[in-house]
């Protein structure tokens, strides 16, 4: 599984969201909750808007900024309507002060 560096670790605070783009053009939403990093596709499966512009809850869910659909960062599951379809997740790690994401689905 190939990883690529997408951001500096210092660029994402706990409780924060950050939109980044992979070399293949795919947009990814990084999230940090309770010190854990997560990476999901940066697009609501209902409204097609960036999830990185949404709200991050302490329940490991990100809320879409448009209609309030929620997705679990741990597995991409749609947790609250109007979202019904899961969002793609990616493997993510911290190494050498950077955040690295795999271009393949987790």
Structure description:
The protein is built from no helices and ten strands. The radius of gyration is 13 Å and the shape is globular. A six-stranded antiparallel sheet has the order 1-10-9-4-3-2, with no helix packed on it. A hairpin with a 5-residue loop joins strand 2 and strand 3. The termini are close together. It is mainly β.
In short:
Helix content is 0%, strand content 47%. By secondary structure, the protein is mostly beta strands.
CATH class: Mainly Beta
Number of strands: 10
For the sheet with most strands, the description reads:
6 strands, antiparallel
- The appropriate CATH architecture is 3-layer Sandwich
Q: Tell me roughly what share of residues is in helical segments.
A: under 10%
Mean pLDDT: 95
Order of helices and strands: EEEEEEEEEE
Strands of the biggest beta sheet: in what spatial order? 1-10-9-4-3-2
Radius of gyration, taken over Cα atoms and rounded to an integer in Å: 13 Å
The CATH superfamily is identified as: Rieske [2Fe-2S] iron-sulphur domain
Runs in which pLDDT lies below 50 for 5 or more consecutive residues are none
Question: In DSSP terms, counting alpha (H) and pi (I) runs of 4 or more, how many helices?
Answer: 0
* End-to-end C-alpha gap: 10 Å
């Amino acid at each position: 599984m190939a990883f690529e560096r997408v951001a500096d670790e210092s660029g994402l605070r706990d409780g924060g969201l950050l939109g980044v783009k992979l070399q293949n053009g795919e947009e990814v939403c990084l999230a940090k909750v309770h010190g854990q990093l997560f990476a999901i596709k940066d697009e609501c499966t209902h409204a097609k808007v960036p999830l990185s512009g949404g709200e991050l809850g302490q329940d490991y869910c990100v809320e879409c900024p448009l209609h309030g659909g929620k997705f679990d960062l741990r597995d991409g599951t749609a947790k609250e309507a109007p979202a019904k379809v899961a969002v793609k997740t990616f493997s993510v790690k911290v190494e050498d002060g950077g955040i690295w994401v795999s271009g393949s689905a987790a």
